[in-house]
Every structure is written in structure tokens, then in C-alpha cells.
Amino acid sequence: MKFELFKRLIDSIDYQDIRIGLFFYGESFLHPEIDKMVEYIIKKEMVIFLNTNGMIFNERLYELITSPKAKGQIVFSIDGLSSNTIGKIRKNIDYKKVLTNIEYLLVLKKKKKNKFGIGIRAVDIGQDFREMEKLIQYWVKKINWVSISKPSYKEKKLVDSFGPLHNTPCKLIYEDMVIAQNGLVTSCCVDYNCELSLGNINDGSILDIYNGKDYQDLREKHKTGNLPEICKYCNHLEIPHFRMGKLNLEEGMQVNYLKTYIDEIFYMDQETDIEKSIR
């Protein structure tokens, strides 16, 4: 997305209690103006949500997100403790380089006494559970949280066998909006090809699109159970639930966990307002 369009979108939002996620598949740090975008959001006193594989070191960006006025979090996608494990779904990743970049960010954060959140999200693709446990052990005391998540889609055969997951509308069609680099709008990141095509930001405002006919039609389909094909097998449609508890790891370490309604488990060292921390 060009900065001019980005700036127009941000300027059209007239309240600060909103989270701006600067990613939609691909590596967001590759954008030539990513630091300029982050700086503009900080200037507007909005909350930033960043996601990266950690391979690209951007000192200017790290300086910005550890500045006193920065609010939000950065999530690193790390699926194990070796380049071989991570490389199963994220090609050409050098874990040692990623580790160095995160450690540098932690040094900056400590030096500036900054509260910008840092998380690590791993996708469960059948890794050795002992490696995943060591991943939690290594990072949980260093950062805000570590999560292990399932892929977004349930198996079609499983859903067909047991019927629809449930008939409650997905909360993301009310709470989220995804805008692709060309201005196309969809309801959430699962629709990575923008098949739902709920509008184009080049043709109207965010509010007009959110309240427009295409969005209203989508919400009605969810209410009646007449789901679009892309929504039928998504685990965001599971009945919302949260389960909290404590997990005993090897070597006597105990961590707090929160299991969410989309089958993602967050591990944290300290008991805090977990749900608020991960948003």
C-alpha cells in the first residue's frame, strides 16, 4: 500500500481506541515505508500491531516502537528452536539471526523502560512436543507471551461429518476489517485472496464500507447459517470460550496459560489481564 493511501485511511479514523495491524500475509518489514507508517501511527497516538518472521533487522523501526509514545505489540512468528523446524513452513529462516534481532529489541526495551508488548506465535504443525516445551521455557520469562496455535481451517471432512460448527455469527465481521494493499476490503485475515470483496477503500470511507450493503449481507448470512464457502471451515466459528490455568513444565517451571476459542494457547510468566495483553 502506498503511503498516501495509508495516510488517508489513518486520518479518516477519528478516534484512538483502535488497533492498526500493519500486515496481511507476506513479510510486512519488506515494505519500503514501514517505519514511516509506524511513525505516523505513533504520532496519532493509536495502537500498533506488528507481525514479522524476525529476519529483517530495521533499527529505525525498533527505535520507534521502543519510544515513550509507542503503544501496541510486535509478534514474531517462530515455530521451533531451529532453522530446520521453522523452515517447514517458513522458508529460508535463520533462527540465529532471528534470535539476535529479538534480543537486540529486548535490550532497547529494557534500556528505555518501554512497555511495548513482545510476543512469539508458533503454529502447531506436529513438531516434537519437547521442542515446543523448550520454546516456551526459553521465551516465556523474556517476553510478554508465547502462543501455540492451530492452522485457521478445520478439515472439511470433519466438519461435513458433524455439521456446521455452530450458527453464531463470527465476531470478526463486527470487530475487524482487513484492507489489502490495492484497497480491497474483506472481513478478516483468513480471506487472504479477498474473495468476499466487501468494498474498496479507493471508492468510499471505512465507515461507509463497514455499514454498507455487502457487509450487512455477510452478517445476515452468518446469522442465518448460510455461510460463504470460505467461512464454513474456519475455526473462528467455534463457540467462544476461554480456559485459564497453570502448566508445569520440566525443570520445575510453572507458567500461566489461556486457551482461546480459536484453539490457540497463550503462555505467560506473570498473572495479568491476559486477554487484554494479547489483543
Molecular structure report:
This protein is an alpha/beta fold and 279 residues long. The chain is 34% helix and 19% strand. The chain has twelve helices and eleven strands. It has helices spanning 3-11, 34-43, 59-65, 83-86, 95-112, 129-139, 156-162, 172-175, 206-210, 213-224, 229-232, 274-277, and strands spanning 19-21, 47-52, 71-77, 117-123, 145-149, 178-179, 184-186, 199-200, 243-248, 254-259, 264-268. The strands form two sheets. An eight-stranded mixed beta sheet has the order 1-2-3-4-5-11-10-9. It has a three-stranded antiparallel beta sheet with strand order 6-7-8, with no helix packed on it. Helix 1 packs parallel to helix 2. The radius of gyration is 19 Å and the shape is globular. The chain starts with a helix and ends with a helix.
Assembly state here? single chain
Overall average pLDDT: 80
What composes the largest sheet? 8 strands, mixed
Determine Rg (CA atoms, Å): 19 Å
In percent, how helical is the residue content?
25-40%
What are the low-pLDDT stretches, counting only 5+ consecutive residues below 50?
154-165
Report the sheet-strand fraction. Answer: 15-25%
